[in-house]
Specification:
mainly beta, 2 helices, 5-stranded antiparallel sheet, 13 strands
């Protein structure tokens, strides 16, 4: 299907996807995933679960991941705008601890493909922002965790002032990168 473009990011295996979009005076239609098109681009993604989150402006979610059975994710925005962040947590990767961010919005019709082994988070830039998650791999509640959004060992520069950020109590208790590394070494 014409209209898809896959742009590899500097973090190996991650892509920005310009999705198929068709619009006219009635509105528009966006298709963020089609198995064969992704496979032709070298992305093998098997949809396991789909869910959405709704966030107020300045909500920061993440940085989330699963320790065991990590999920690959395809994330996009149905309404509003996010500044979407991924962090490479693959200990053997040349881009380990590196992060990148992409603006996703209902207007730009982009998705972000997040490979297994990455943490994911975002800052909502508009009230009522709806983020759509499509996940490859089963949810593993016992190892669903994350790293603090402001860990200086990663050094993410968020577009929202920290004093304006809105977090869940859970996200404020996430581990540091140093704690993650210690946990992974103890499991090796």
């Amino acid at each position: 299907m014409a209209g898809y473009n896959f742009t590899p990011l500097e973090l190996s295996g991650a892509y920005v996807v310009d999705c198929f979009f068709s619009g006219d005076h009635r509105g528009g239609f966006t298709k963020s995933f089609e198995k064969d098109i992704y496979a032709a681009a070298g992305i093998h993604f098997s949809l396991n679960e789909t869910f959405a989150s709704v966030s107020a402006k300045n909500v920061v979610r993440g940085l989330h991941f699963q320790i065991h059975n990590p999920q690959a994710k395809l994330v996009s925005v149905v309404h509003g705008t996010v500044w979407d962040v991924i962090v490479d947590l693959r200990l053997d990767s040349p881009t380990y601890k590196k992060w990148t961010a992409v603006e996703l919005s209902a207007e730009n019709h982009r998705a972000l493909y997040v490979p297994r082994g990455f943490a994911h988070g975002f800052a909502a830039l508009e009230d009522g922002t709806v983020m759509l998650y499509q996940c490859d791999g089963a949810y593993d509640k016992p190892t669903d965790t994350g790293i603090l959004f402001n860990d200086p060992a990663i050094g993410i520069t968020w577009p929202v002032a920290e004093e304006l950020m809105i977090h869940s109590a859970r996200d404020l208790q996430l581990m540091t990168l140093q704690e993650y590394e210690a946990r992974m070494q103890s499991q090796a």
